[in-house]
Amino acid sequence: MERPSLEINLPDTHEEGKLYVVDSLNNLNKLNVCPDESQRSLDEENTGGTGENMAGSNTRNQCLLFVTFILTLIISLALVSFVIFLIIQTRNKMDQISSRLLSEKKNIEELKKINNILLKHLNQSGIKD
């Protein structure tokens, strides 16, 4: 069973362009002939079989992981700072309210004393119905 040859009419191109097209056709032919091992063989050809592609990928993944970790730390720090700010603000407001309540309590006690003094004075003056 013979495969038909792939013929492509190439316009007048430079020699490098022809080589690129021939390499692409060879890679395509390898994909059609042996699809199971095609990716491995293409990777070996592209990297020279030394695994440079995998090393670059690992380095890129580590860099991405490191950047993600740093961003997570920065966001966490910002959230913690915001929570601390809210706690401090709430404590200040509570202190203000507490001091107002104490001053109002003193005012109420003074009013009670004045009321008692007025009642005693009225009772002593002998106003009778």
UniProtKB/TrEMBL annotation:
Record-linked InterPro entries: DUF4577
Region listing for Disordered, in residue ranges: 36-57
Transmembrane helix as UniProt keyword: yes
Record keyword Transmembrane present: yes
Cleaved signal peptide residues: none
Keywords: Membrane, Transmembrane, Transmembrane helix
Membrane-crossing segments per the record: 64-88
Protein name: LSME1 protein
Gene: Lsmem1
